[in-house]
Amino acid sequence: MTSSTNSESDWPIHTASNSKFLYKISNKEFRTCRLLPKYSSIPTSESHKTKNSIAKIQIVSWEDQLDVLQEFDPADIIGAELQIDFPQEANFSRAFENHWNETEREAANEDNSYAKSTQFSKDKIEETICASTSFCGLSMQDRFDNDTNILDRNTNSSSLQGNLFENATAYLNVYCYPRISSSSKFNFIPFVKSNNGYRKPKHVKLEAMKCEDFANARACVRAIRKVAQLGQFESISSDPKQFLVIVNPYSGVGNGTAVYNSTVAPMLEQSGVEHDVYITKYAGHGRDRMKKKNDLNSLINRGRENEKRKLNMMKELDGEKDISLYDAIICVGGDGLLWEIIQGIWNRPDREQILKEISFGIIGCGTCNGLAKSITHAAKEKYNLVESTFLICKGKFSPVDLSHYFTRNKSYIGFLAFTWGFIADVDLESEKIRFLGKYRTDVWAVWRILTLRKYGARFSYLPPQKVDKIPENNDDIPDSLMPPLSEPVPSDWVTIESDSFYLFWASQVTHASSDVYNSPNSKLQDGLFRIMVIR
After folding, report:
1. Cα distances (angstroms) measured from residue 113 to each of 70, 225, 235, 274
2. What region, left, alpha or beta, does residue 437 occupy, with left being phi > 0 and alpha being psi -120 to 50 degrees?
3. Is-same-fold flag (242-400; 404-534)?
4. Integer distance in angstroms from the first to the last C-alpha of the chain?
5. Dihedral through CA 416, CA 422, CA 427, CA 428, nearest 10?
6. What 3-state DSSP class applies to 417?
7. Which of 450, 417, 442, 421 is nearest to 535 (CA)?
8. Which of 227, 240, 349, 358 has the most CB atoms within 10 Å of its CB?
9. What is the pLDDT of residue 200?
10. Which string of DSSP letters, residue by residue, matches 152-187?
11. What average pLDDT does this structure show over 128-133?
């Protein structure tokens, strides 16, 4: 989850300084304003040298640049758009639509990097007209290209001049989720505020002053997107990047669908991410969705599924895309949903390619949510639904270790932890009190402590100091480090044997659940298990 800094050259000083907006103070008071960057010096790789970076974007009074009305951090921005509203005249809007689509096609033919960089929403126009409102909405969200020459070609087009924008109103929308500082009477130092609070929406909406084609406002949108490093979802091809969001409505206390509708979908839309949503209907549905479409057809034709499930699969084949066509898969559910998805991918013949080309995200709505907590912890974010979605919208993806578990008859892929004994008993047996939500494991843990069990086992492991070198890219770790179960344990391994094991806990990440910080030294990608044994 590394991040790079912006530079002073990312901001168009002259254009932005001449862009005039209206800032709403109250329902009756507006101030004329402009956008200006606030710089900070950061060290460079060269000794004793620094460079200017844009730390804040300030909204300042047009008359007095020292009069700061509001400021926002580029790191808190997930999206920026220029929304243009036209009078409610369908013919007028259709004429603009036809012109806009034509200029986009021409630009795409001249420069592939611009292909489909602006998209016109027909549905939004029709919906607004049918609602009998006074404006017809046109959203050009997150589709502005960095090529100023192409923008100039559009701007200088004669049909964009004059009457086309005469009665239009443009709004600059910036979607921000800053950390809200909080003070607490429980702080050791009174009146000290924390800068690492939860993220809350604090969006900016400025009305652009009337002009011929809002070229300056459009330039400001491009600059904000560049400074906030929001180009991660733009594609050089004609097709924008697309996510598949898989929602488990039964995870945890059953609020997965509500979380998607209230938090995930709006934030993805604000960040300009096009996505399809898929609601799971039964246990293992996430795994089944990962199968290649021809595999599903073959499975149905061979009659390996019962009639009810076969019928569900046949209904789902129409209109579904194979997951290889997506750029990311986002889970709205618990760790179990992502586990299902990984198992399904592992059974595909193209699994290596899928895992390299597709990114994965998780927004924790389950009982434990260990991976979602571990990811926000690694990113130094608070754990919350907004924070998890924020990291996805910012495109902050990081490699994560996968592990391979073998029994004599089966094998599994894991990403969280492997437990045996006390922890496994609590996890599995507490399913019968799932209605308690995240407290089910706590309640059952008390019961298991009162009725403690012992287990006999032999545990063997290879200490990391006995490995010559753990490669930085863990794909290169040789399979020879793990001997087959049918062969004796190598002599350089350590073996513990006992009839009184209480707990075995091998962790890959820092948190087993949102409130269990069981492995502080674990990293998302270090190729190691941290193992706790109690006997």
Report:
1. 34, 16, 8, 19
2. left
3. no
4. 37
5. 120
6. strand
7. 421
8. 227
9. 94
10. HHHHT-GGGSGGGGTT-EEEEEEEE--B--B--TT-
11. 31
Length of the chain in residues, anyone? 535
- Per DSSP, 445 falls in state H
Strands ordered across the beta sheet of 169-176? 68-72, 50-61, 30-43, 21-24, 204-208, 169-176, 77-87, 135-141
CA-derived radius of gyration, the chain: 27
Question: Residues with Cβ < 8 Å from 71, sequence gap 6 or more?
Answer: 38, 56, 57, 58, 59
Helices 422-429 and 440-450, interaxial angle, to 10°?
A: 130
State CA 444 to chain mean position distance. 33
- Tokens for 431, please give them: 């399913």
State how far the Cα of 217 lies from the Cα of 205, in Å rounded to an integer.
12
For 37-66, how does the pLDDT look when each residue is reduced to its tens digit (9 = 90+)?
888 876 655 555 556 788 899 999 998 888
Q: Residue 85: pLDDT band by 50, 70, 90 thresholds?
A: confident
User: What tens digit of pLDDT does each residue of 65-81 get?
Assistant: 889 999 999 999 999 99
Give CATH for domain 242-400: 3.40.50.10330
Class of 404-534 in CATH: mainly beta
Q: What pLDDT digit, counting tens, does each position of 148-185 carry?
A: 333 343 444 444 444 556 678 889 999 999 998 765 44
Domain ranges of the chain: 8-233, 242-400, 404-534
Report the predicted TM-score, pTM, of the whole model to 2 decimal places.
0.76
